[in-house]
Amino acid sequence: MTSDSVPEPTPLDASLVGRQLDAHHLPETNGRMATCRRCGLRTDGPDGRHAPAEQQLTQARRWLDTQSLSATIAAMRFQRDT
Ligand SMILES: [Zn+2]
């Protein structure tokens, strides 16, 4: 047993991250492919919701981190300018 192993992502994680992405923006697909053009992650259909694959979860979390970071920076700039 190794203590430093990364826990396996579960389907629950995928749906949670999918909901976070949905809350951030609606999936933008080209109407044919089940991929959001905005974040590059899988959706559950051309008109569906975000449904990142398990191997996309790290990428999805990193994307969300980047987004919240830029939102924080933008908010700080806005406060400084006013
Ligand atoms: Zn997206």
Question: Explain this structure to me?
Answer:
This protein has 82 residues and is mostly helical. 48% of the residues lie in helices and 0% in strands. The chain has two helices and no strands. The longest helix has 25 residues, at 57-81. The model has no long low-confidence stretch (mean pLDDT 88). The structure holds zinc ion (ZN). Residues 21, 25, 27, 36, 38-39, 41, 50 line the site of zinc ion.
Top keywords for this entry?
82 residues; mainly alpha; 2 helices; 48% helix; 0% strand; flat; binds zinc ion
Helices and strands, in order, run as HH
Report the β-strand fraction as a percent range: under 5%
* Rg, alpha carbons: 15 Å
- How many runs of DSSP E, i.e. beta strands? 0
> How confident is the prediction overall: mean pLDDT?
88
Ligands present: zinc ion
User: Main sheet, how many strands, which sense, barrel?
Assistant: none
- Structural shape: flat
Number of helices: 2
Describe the SSE topology.
Elements: H1 11-24, H2 57-81
Q: How is this structure best summarized?
A:
By secondary structure, the protein is mainly alpha-helical. The chain contains 2 helices and no strands. The protein is flat.
